[in-house]
Amino acid sequence: MSSNAPTAELTGSYTIDPAHSRIGFVARHAMVTKVRGAFNEFEGTAELDGEKPEQSSVRVTIKAASIDTRNSQRDEHLRSNDFLAMQDHPEITFVSTAVRRTGDTTFDLTGDLTVRGVTRQVTIPFSYEGAAQDPFGNLRVGLEGSVEINRKDYGVVWNAPLETGGLLVSEKVTLEFEISAIKQS
Fold first, then answer.
1. Which family does the UniProt entry place this protein in (predicted)?
2. Residue 13 above 50 pLDDT?
3. Which among 75, 81, 139, 171 could bridge 183 via Cys, Cβ 3.0 to 4.6 Å?
4. Domains by residue range for the chain, with CATH
5. What share of the chain is helix, strand, coil (3-state, %, to 5)?
6. CB-count exposure of residue 144 (10 Å: 0-12, 13-18, 19+)
7. What's the pTM value of the predicted model, to 2 decimals?
8. pLDDT tens for each residue of 30-56
9. Which comes out higher in pLDDT, residue 100 or 50?
10. Closest CA to 151 of 164, 133, 168, 134
11. Please, which residues have CB within 8 angstroms of residue 46's CB and are 6 or more apart in sequence?
12. Which of 83-92's residues contact partners 24+ apart within 8 Å by CB, and which partners?
């Protein structure tokens, strides 16, 4: 099976495979370039309904300390109270509240995103990338999505002014999700 349109066979419980998934982010730095990063430790589950996607649900938990921008000094700053305050808020969570089909293979996933103890509703447009049986007999589904948030909405307000005008770190952050989920038997 490698169909692109969701079907009844996909209905069931799934676990995100962190070894084959990525939860990342992009933020503008110094007004001139983008810094990309990811969270290396996360877990998630989904209840998918292939025929009635609006009955599907998702839960994801991310370890804030696992932030990785390929620069240890920057990562330590991001873990500090200036940004994620991971000592007080070790996890970032997302719990879906609604799913709406927007096309044959596209969906809007709405839910509560909690960062630094602040919960806000976000809607993430997702595309269903297909399903396949892996060499171990597992049914896998692929999903990709991204959404732009304002980090200040979550109490992440630290910044530094630039001599040339503007700020060191953009308020807007794009969250990126590339998910491989395995159906549970």
1. Belongs to the UPF0312 family.
2. yes
3. 139
4. 8-183 (2.40.128.110)
5. 15, 55, 30
6. middle
7. 0.91
8. 677 898 999 999 999 999 998 888 999
9. 100
10. 168
11. 13, 14, 16, 56, 57, 58, 59, 181
12. 83/156, 83/158, 84/115, 84/116, 84/156, 85/116, 85/117, 88/116, 88/117, 89/64, 89/115, 89/116, 89/117, 90/63, 90/64, 90/65, 91/61, 91/62, 91/63, 91/64, 92/39, 92/61, 92/62, 92/64
Q: Any idea which residue has 């066979």 for tokens?
A: 9
d(CA 173, CA 161): 18
pLDDT for residue 2: 41
> Is the Cβ–Cβ distance between 70 and 40 less than 8 Å?
no
Measured distance CA(91)–CA(86) in Å, rounded: 7
Tell whether the model's pLDDT for residue 114 goes beyond 70: yes
